[in-house]
Amino acid sequence: MLDNEEPGRGPAPWHGFNSAIEVCLAEYFTFRGRASRSEYWFFALFMLLMSIGGEIADNLSGFRIAPDVGLFGTILAIALFIPSLAVTSRRFHDAGWSFWWYLMVFLPVIGWIFIFYVLVTRDQLPNRFDVVR
């Protein structure tokens, strides 16, 4: 951080895997502020690993809600749904975009390209989504 920068202003800080998971789960319902690329992508990796673990647990236990829907995977998906939206919202804010642009996900191909672009970019300068902590 530069000497003349205010804390909580500007790009979100880099996070390691454990730190990103802790921040995302601690800010379960926080849709304001910014999330760094590392925070977002480490949480996405965590969600992927948890879904694989849930699928393995479902296959080993045999607990099924429906033929192709496992109990543990469903519980994990429900538990991680809100924090995944929250970190995505903060990630959009770090790139300088409103989370309403996430609705582009419903446009085939072009929408997904746009979403990916937003998730991999960031706004180096303070922007309207900064939250002073």
Describe the structure.
Keywords: Membrane, Transmembrane, Transmembrane helix. With 133 residues, the protein is mainly α. It has a domain at 17-94. The chain contains four helices and two strands; from the N terminus they run ααββαα. The chain has helices at 17-26, 37-61, 71-94, 110-120, and strands spanning 64-66, 69-70. The protein has a two-stranded antiparallel sheet. Helix 1 packs across helix 2 (37-61) and helix 2 (37-61) packs antiparallel against helix 3. The model is unreliable at 1-7 (pLDDT under 50).
Give the N-terminus to C-terminus distance in angstroms: 14 Å
What portion of residues is helical?
Answer: 40-55%
Topology as H/E string? HHEEHH
Strand fraction equals under 5%
Q: Quick one: how many beta strands?
A: 2
Order of the strands making up the biggest sheet: 1-2
- Report Rg: 17 Å
Class of secondary structure makeup: mainly alpha
- Biggest sheet architecture: 2 strands, antiparallel
Poorly predicted segments: 1-7
Number of helices: 4
Nearest-integer average pLDDT: 85
- Morphology: globular
